[in-house]
Write a structure and sequence with these properties.
alpha/beta, single chain, five-stranded mixed β-sheet, Transglutaminase-like domain-containing protein, Papain-like_cys_pep_sf, Transglutaminase-like, 9 helices
């Protein structure tokens, strides 16, 4: 996908009827991303705020248009009005990133969500995370909408190199540079650590670059077998190609690789 392609709404990043809530959005990228901070709440925070388990299923919503439908039902105010905990949509870091991506595109700014690992939540660990990139001054600027305004990382509006690793960058860190794969995983779990987690996020990141921003727990192709330890050298070689192609950022090659049977998101996931 070209930079102009990243300017257009994709399968999950159209606003739908929720566009009526987008009045008065800022025009600067960081201002747009800052709006998202007041719209989404993490499941653990939602539970602590007394939000019932029926609403925790909102974290399984993929399309932004449906997220905005939920928000409108809770509070029909414009998106620029920060919601209290009870009237935010329940979502993960993926939802912060994809909603920011959708709003940036709505304002005509090339943007994309990236899946990978953050280094700034726990010292010495690479934790499963999603962020947003927008195009400015000839480069992709990385911004973490979830922590804008918080004392979590220096410059969340322009993350430093290495603060966040995409899935492919993490795979290179492991395969090429010899990083311990057991340092990469999902916070709050004992089992979701290791090379399989890196493989999964590398494939999810490729899908996101091809306009399929899936949920953090979506699995397809040989991902389930990978998590179970049932893949071998051929699959790792495929992941080498995924990491190299994502790093090269060539739209034609990204689309060609993504179209392979092991990597394309099936129609059963929607």
């Amino acid at each position: 996908m070209t930079n102009d392609g990243y300017r257009r709404a994709g399968k999950y990043t159209g606003l739908g009827d929720g566009a009526r809530l987008a009045v008065g959005l800022p025009t600067d990228p960081v201002g747009i991303c800052a709006v998202v901070r007041g719209l989404v709440i993490q499941p653990d925070d939602a539970a602590a705020a007394g939000i019932g388990p029926d609403r925790l299923r909102e974290k399984d919503i993929r399309p932004v248009a449906r997220l905005l439908d939920v928000l409108a039902g809770l509070d029909p105010a414009p998106l620029t009005v920060a919601r209290g905990p009870a009237t935010r949509v329940v979502g993960t870091c993926r939802h912060f990133a994809v909603l920011a991506c959708a709003l940036l595109r709505y304002q005509g700014i090339p943007a994309r969500a990236r899946c990978g690992f953050a280094t700034y939540f726990r010292a010495g660990r690479y934790l499963d995370h999603w962020i947003t990139e927008y195009r400015a001054d000839g480069r992709w600027v990385r911004v973490d909408s979830e922590v804008l305004g918080l004392d979590v990382v220096d410059r969340p509006d322009d993350l430093a190199d290495g603060a966040f690793l995409t899935g492919g960058e993490a795979w290179h860190r492991y395969r090429r540079d010899g990083a311990d794969p057991m340092l990469f995983g999902v916070a709050g779990t004992d089992h979701a650590w290791g090379a399989a987690e890196i493989r999964g996020n590398a494939i999810r990141d490729l899908a996101a670059l091809c306009d399929r921003e899936m949920l953090p727990w979506d699995e397809w192709g040989r991902m389930t077998a990978s998590y179970a330890g049932r893949t071998g050298a051929d699959y790792d070689a495929l992941l080498d190609a995924v990491a190299a192609t994502c790093a090269a950022d060539d739209p034609t090659e990204l689309a060609r690789l993504y179209a392979s049977a092991d990597l394309a998101v099936p129609d059963t996931l929607h």
